[in-house]
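Example 3.2
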Amino acid sequence: MWYGAYPPQLIFSKRRFRRVVLNPPNFEPGSWCGAGKLLIDSETGEYWLTSRPRMGPVKRGYGFEIYRSSNAEDYSLVYSMSKEELSEVVGAIVQSIEGSQILRDPLTGRYMLYLSVDVAGENVAGREGRVYESKWQTYLMTAEDPAGPWKGEGFVLKCDRDYDSGEARDATIDIVDGRYFALYKARKAGEGEVNMALALSSDGFNWVKLGVLKIDGDVQPKYFLLSGSIMAGCSGPIFIGAETLCVVKGAALTKHVASYVIDYRRVNLESIFKAEWKVGSVYEHPEYPIHSYMSIAYDSDRSRWLITVEAVDPKHSKEPGLNTEVDRLLLYTSTWQYPYPRHVLHN
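Structure, written as tokens:
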């Protein structure tokens, strides 16, 4: 018998491939969809999914999209915005859009949309060898309904520290005990070392950066990227998701899943477990199945976990790499007879 939070080991051991939920704009090399996150709206019973379409090095992340579903499997597009339109909202030229996600603020009920945007002076990051000349920051928009209209609120995670002067983006943001936690990708300008940093907020607008995290008291590897979800646990907030440790021809590709306790007081990640992501469908590359992005959400109405991954397609990709692969968005489900231990249900 286990106690506390649902064991991440159990989530992944019981997972089964369900279906392709989103396809890329086309199936030419460099065409992707994904880089988003799934939100289950407990008030409306709807499922919301964000994505960024991409088509090669020139037409990089050229917009963001919001999809709605009533069953978590069949999605329809309800809102989209091009990077040119977003540039007008932001007040700066947006070269590309990457990681995005929606949350619902518990105080106001408004939806919060976090967007990773490249506001470098020119479009360089789509070219292999120049990816570290970009300048990625996190922009916030809000709305009463995910179908829009969306209002620009400003940059909330900026490149304003030495350790994140090149990138402060692709955050995994969740609300635990009423507090916003953000694990975000931090990179120093002009350098290739990528780490995960931590920021906290009481309202989702104003953030306090705590710095680059350690792992079990030691420094992170030179390339270390997490993408997933943050959940409540008895020992503290727990991250569950994909762990990326390598870059292949400009693309951050993933072979492993992992889980950590987020010790925010000591700015440290405490290891829970790590395992290889075993390919469960024909839509995943056998060596590099995932391109960075994953989300995990518990669907209490159906007693199941929903896992979305941006997968490297083995059929349409020339090879894994920034402008040579094709990415789809896949859905896995993980079910268990009891969503909580028996003693919790019976007491």
